[in-house]
Design goal:
Radius of gyration: 19 Å
Shape: globular
Oligomer: single chain
Strand content: 15-25%
Number of domains: 2
Distance between the termini: 28 Å
CATH superfamily of the largest domain: NAD(P)-binding Rossmann-like Domain
Largest sheet: 6 strands, mixed
Strand order of the largest sheet: 2-1-3-5-6-4
Helix content: 25-40%
Length: 283
């Protein structure tokens, strides 16, 4: 039962109607008998600073997740962040440290755990095509770089943003080959055919009315195709990939694993991953 002593955790984003994080986290709190509750808060960018100020004032603030489109902007209002969040340039988890509000990022580790545990894929030495250049793409890129991918093609509708994403890693030692390009680049099809893994980090696919990012009939059958979207479970990209014989993976596993890491940051307790999976219908 919620009371004045209940610790309140939040999800910040816009829109949030599709999110399954509240279901997953509230099930985890109930499993461990913890006096916590997880609440989604839809907020647009111009009101984000007011919400962060409210978190600072709350005595029973338990923590927060941050999702699209606020993962980068929210850093303007924090006192500091972890080294991993610094490398990624985005935050998905907020936690109080004394009187300060700090940012963490669990997306990269959650993405890798999903690849490993859901489909047994190791990015080391592999060629990857990453679609998108936002906060989620930054986390995926960080994960792939540190896991030793051989080559990463960064594809975005706006080439400038793909170049900016690649430039975040300028001067870092032992980098894989990072190649910014647009969907109309003459090398796009060749690089797609040469890839082992394709990752969609954009929001294209959330709505069935979304136009495709490219001609999905061009997908080679040997690809692992990962769409970070989890609602719907089968986006147009994943449906097309499955028809071509590709292995497919949606974002539900990543949601669970990054959420479990956030849970542990907030509570200091081991997350009940099995129950979180079962709550979301994954056995």
């Amino acid at each position: 039962m919620v009371s004045g002593r209940t610790r309140v955790c939040f999800l910040l984003g816009y829109p949030l109607g599709h999110s399954r994080s509240p279901l997953m986290h509230n099930a985890a709190f109930a499993t461990l008998g913890m006096d916590y509750v997880y609440v989604p808060v839809e907020v647009k960018g111009e009101r984000l600073s007011a919400i962060i100020a409210a978190f600072r004032a709350m005595e029973n603030f338990g923590g927060a997740n941050v999702t699209v489109p606020h993962k980068i902007q929210v850093m303007e209002y924090l006192d500091g962040w972890s080294q991993e969040a610094e490398q990624i340039g985005a935050v998905n988890t907020l936690v109080k440290k004394g009187v300060e509000l700090w940012g963490e990022n669990t997306d990269a580790k959650g993405f890798l755990a999903s690849l490993r545990e859901e489909v047994g894929f190791d990015p080391r030495g592999k060629r990857v095509m990453l679609l998108g250049a936002g906060g989620a793409a930054r986390a995926v890129l960080q994960a792939l770089v540190h896991q030793g991918a051989e080559r990463i093609d960064l594809v975005n509708r706006t080439l400038k943003r793909a170049r900016e994403l690649a430039s975040l890693w300028d001067g870092m030692p032992d980098l894989p080959s990072l190649n910014p390009m647009g969907f109309s680049d003459p090398l796009f099809l060749q690089r797609l055919r040469e890839s082992h893994l394709l990752v969609n980090s954009t929001s294209v696919g959330l709505s069935p009315r979304d136009p495709p990012l490219f001609d999905y009939r061009l997908l080679p059958s040997h690809l692992l195709v990962c769409d970070l979207i989890y609602e719907p479970a089968m986006t147009a990209l994943l449906e097309a990939a499955q028809k071509k014989g590709c292995t497919v993976l949606n974002g539900l596993g990543m949601l669970i694993h990054q959420g479990a890491l956030s849970f542990e940051i907030w509570t200091g307790r081991k997350a009940p991953v099995k129950q979180m999976r079962e709550t979301l219908g994954i056995r």
